[in-house]
Design goal:
Pfam families: AA_kinase, PUA. The protein has 386 residues and is an alpha/beta fold. It has two domains: 260 residues, 3-Layer(aba) Sandwich (Carbamate kinase), CATH 3.40.1160.10; 93 residues, Archaeosine Trna-guanine Transglycosylase, Chain: A, domain 4. 37% of the residues lie in helices and 19% in strands. The chain is built from 14 helices and 15 strands. The protein is globular and about 70 Å long. The two termini are 24 Å apart. The structure holds glutamic acid (GLU). The site of glutamic acid has 12 residues, from helix 3 and strand 4.
Length: 386
């Protein structure tokens, strides 16, 4: 970070398996030492660092020394073998710089449930207050399909929200997101700044037939989408580039930066972004979309044109316009059976239809977060790199 005066920040550094193994079958200690040195440098400059680490399965596979890891349960076994080794290694490497680390293993269930989310947040905050580096991974050994985040990109976005981070740095085996596969297309340009995650970008990152999908760019875009809405700037950069953490954060190394939303998002709404999965979808008419997006209103049954999915009272649902664009999400005050009867109806008719009035509004403003990023004529900028 040189001699520049940089405000103290909380930075989440996400290290993918490809970075930790340097593309080989087992953890590459030399590479990890180098990354620890860079994290220590960040801390020396006064920043707080949180590490989201992959590599448990890779470490477990190397330790077991037998071919295995195809089924989910085998991968869970490998993670159970490898996680201990992984944290032990991190512990020893950070100790070289006199830094204490802590292990936190999370699953989706820990961020979905509001009280568990708050507990995880408080633990994380406390660790940072005591100058400890939290080392976080998914609790693979116990995570069933329903409660699994599934990839550490999305996990790192949740962690960035939990930690109230300023920046999330996703280190991978590519310099960022490209307009085409740089290995086969000489015209490929690095997308160095993203203002709005459009369908075009999503197809560049994950559409089948684009080699970019192999770098796990689709999940990185999902992570960027979640984190930027909560006010976290997200960067993708190549983990093996010398001094990459400082160089990417200061804008000197090639990288893709996702500019964060400026609107402050309060604690509860941050949880809505990080935590629960959506159980249903409510399509709203144009009047309702305008009232919600521009006038600070709550959602009334009258503005609902259709719904799908099965949800209970208090579940998270997505709100979409008639073109299917998701513009908000929030906690619904009705279950889907009730709402099926009430869609398009004025609240004064609720009692006659249901026999009771649980609430006059379907989704209250306070329980809702707007997602709208209809940004920019220019959703992203590119840069030619040699
Ligand atoms: N949690 C997995 C592991 O530690 C990695 C998942 C991922 O890299 O997305 O091996």
């Amino acid at each position: 970070m040189g001699n520049e005066k940089v405000a103290k920040q909380t930075i989440v550094v996400k290290l993918g398996t490809s970075v930790l193994t340097a593309g080989q079958a087992s953890l590459n200690t030399a590479q990890m030492v180098e990354l620890v040195r860079q994290c220590a440098q960040l801390k020396q400059a006064g920043h707080q660092v949180v590490v989201v680490t992959s590599g448990a399965v890779a470490a477990g596979r190397a330790a077991l020394g037998k071919p295995c890891g195809h089924s989910l349960v085998e991968k869970q076994m490998l993670a159970a073998i490898g996680q201990g080794q992984l944290i032990h290694l991190w512990q020893n490497l950070f100790a070289l710089y006199g830094i204490t680390v802590a292990q936190m293993l999370l699953t989706r269930a820990d961020v979905e449930d509001r009280s568990r989310y708050l507990t995880a947040r408080d633990t994380l905050t406390q660790l940072l207050a005591f100058d400890v580096v939290p080392i976080i991974n998914e609790n693979d050994a116990v995570a069933t399909a329903e409660i699994k985040v599934g990839d550490n990109d999305n996990l790192s976005a949740m962690v960035a929200i939990l930690a109230n981070a300023d920046k999330l740095l996703l280190l991978t085996d590519q310099a960022g997101l490209f307009t085409a596969d740089p290995r086969s297309n000489p015209d490929a340009a690095l997308i160095n700044e993203v203002h709005c995650i459009t369908d075009e970008l999503k197809s560049l990152a994950g559409g089948s037939g684009t080699a970019l999908g192999t770098g796990g760019m689709a999940t990185k875009l999902q992570a960027a989408d979640i984190a930027t809405r909560a006010g976290v700037e997200v960067l993708i950069a190549r983990g093996s580039t010398p001094n990459i953490i400082a160089e990417a954060l200061s804008g000197k190394a090639p990288s893709t930066t996702f500019v964060c939303f400026k609107a402050p998002v309060d604690g509860r709404k941050r949880w809505l972004l990080a935590g629960p999965k959506s159980s249903g979808r409510i399509t709203c008419d144009e009047g309702a979309v305008t009232a919600l997006c521009d006038k600070g209103a709550s959602l009334l049954a009258k503005g609902i044109v259709a719904l799908s999915g099965e949800f209970a009272v208090g579940d998270l649902v997505s709100l979409c316009d008639v073109n299917g664009r998701e513009f908000a999400k929030g906690l619904c005050r009705f279950n889907h059976q009730e709402l099926e009867q009430l869609k398009g109806v004025h609240s004064r008719e609720f009692a006659a239809l249901l026999g009771y009035i649980p609430s006059n509004v379907v989704l209250h403003r306070d329980d809702m977060v707007l997602l709208g990023n209809e940004a920019a004529d220019k959703p992203y900028k590119t840069q030619k790199i040699s």
